[in-house]
């Protein structure tokens, strides 16, 4: 991994890790660099991955939330790039995609956020390129470290809140049943 931003040692696992990479490839070349960095980091940790694409950065939290409820992955990597344009849409996409990923994390979903939010294409390339800042690998490393913490602390618990009490009242059918 290039750069000096990431300093934690690589996460290691006794059992293999399966990571879902959700990518918004609006800027295809930048997305490909982010994917290259993320997949290299996952494979270096002995993990496997699947990749799904969504139309834009706003759809990334939704796709991760769906996968977390409907599929079986240990963690998730969010990849995409938002470059400031002429309108306020940039702020909406940056803030809401980040907020969505943060909310998923607070609910127990293990996500590394690699959605770049930059002023121009040069900044995006510098951050995505695996030979420069390699933010795809950084996002994968974040997800892998969260998975390692989750495993250390006993794995994932399903659901949040209270479970309904089982229904103990006799049904109408039971009331008519003969008694011994």
From TrEMBL:
Domain of life (superkingdom): Bacteria
Catalytic activity, EC: 2.5.1.78
Keyword vocabulary terms for this entry: Riboflavin biosynthesis, Transferase
Stretches with biased composition (Basic and acidic residues): 170-180
Any one GO biological process: riboflavin biosynthetic process
GO cellular component: cytosol; riboflavin synthase complex
GO MF annotations, alphabetized: 6,7-dimethyl-8-ribityllumazine synthase activity
CDD domains: Lumazine_synthase-I (cd09209)
InterPro entries cross-referenced by the UniProt entry: LS, LS/RS, LS/RS_sf
Pfam families the record matches: DMRL_synthase (PF00885)
Name by which UniProt lists this protein: 6,7-dimethyl-8-ribityllumazine synthase
Organism ancestry: Bacteria, Pseudomonadati, Pseudomonadota, Alphaproteobacteria, Rhodobacterales
Gene: ribH1
């Amino acid at each position: 991994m290039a750069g000096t931003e990431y300093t934690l040692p690589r996460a290691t696992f006794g059992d293999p890790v399966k990571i879902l990479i959700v990518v918004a490839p609006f800027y295809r070349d930048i997305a490909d660099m982010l994917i290259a960095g993320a997949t290299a980091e996952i494979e270096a940790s002995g993990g496997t991955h699947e990749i799904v694409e969504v139309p834009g950065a706003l759809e990334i939290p939704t796709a991760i939330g769906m996968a977390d409820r409907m599929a079986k992955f240990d963690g998730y990597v969010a990849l995409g790039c938002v470059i400031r344009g002429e309108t306020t849409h940039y702020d909406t996409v940056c803030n809401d995609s980040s907020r969505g990923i943060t909310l998923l994390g607070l609910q127990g979903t293990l996500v590394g956020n690699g959605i770049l939010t930059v002023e121009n294409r040069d900044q995006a390339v510098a951050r995505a390129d695996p030979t420069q800042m390699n933010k795809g690998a950084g996002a994968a490393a974040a997800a892998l470290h969260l998975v390692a913490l989750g495993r250390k602390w006993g794995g994932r618990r399903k659901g949040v809140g209270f479970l309904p009490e089982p229904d103990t009242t006799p049904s109408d059918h039971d009331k008519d049943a003969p008694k011994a």
